[in-house]
Design a protein that fits this description.
Length: 132
């Protein structure tokens, strides 16, 4: 493994509006853009429910955990939210190794990570993972 190694891409097909509403209930997120199409329209956001930013970031976290083999490998993540993801969107998640260093007990792997919809980055960031 070295800088430039791509992470395997992960695709989320057609974000499900029912999942968006369920996450809003679980999180007690009362923002109506997640479940009220009228509120979405009044906010000027179109005609589909808006996925929670944390859910979109979770797609990135799932990719990292799958690639590393465990969620406990994650040491740091820093992401910026650049655009909304809407019900029905296909989300492509990926990344690339930017640096690999040894720390005595294994490797510390720095990566650039991202999520995109139709080629447009909706999340961009970086992460560090500890691999044995």
């Amino acid at each position: 493994m070295r800088a430039g190694t791509p992470l395997p891409e992960r695709r989320i097909d057609a974000v499900n509006p029912d999942h968006i509403r369920i996450v809003a209930l679980v999180l007690r997120d009362s923002n109506p853009i997640h479940f009220d199409l009228g509120a979405v329209a009044r906010a000027g956001l179109g005609d589909r429910e808006v996925n929670q930013g944390g859910t979109t970031m979770a797609y990135v976290l799932d990719l990292l955990a799958e690639w590393a083999g465990t969620r406990s490998a994650l040491r740091r993540i820093d992401c910026s939210f650049r655009a909304n993801v809407f019900a029905g969107d296909d989300v492509l998640v990926g990344g690339e190794v930017t640096a690999v260093t040894e720390d005595g007990s294994g490797l510390l792997v720095d990566c650039d990570v991202w999520a995109e919809v139709d080629g447009r980055r909706v999340i961009a960031g970086s992460a560090t993972l500890a691999l044995e």
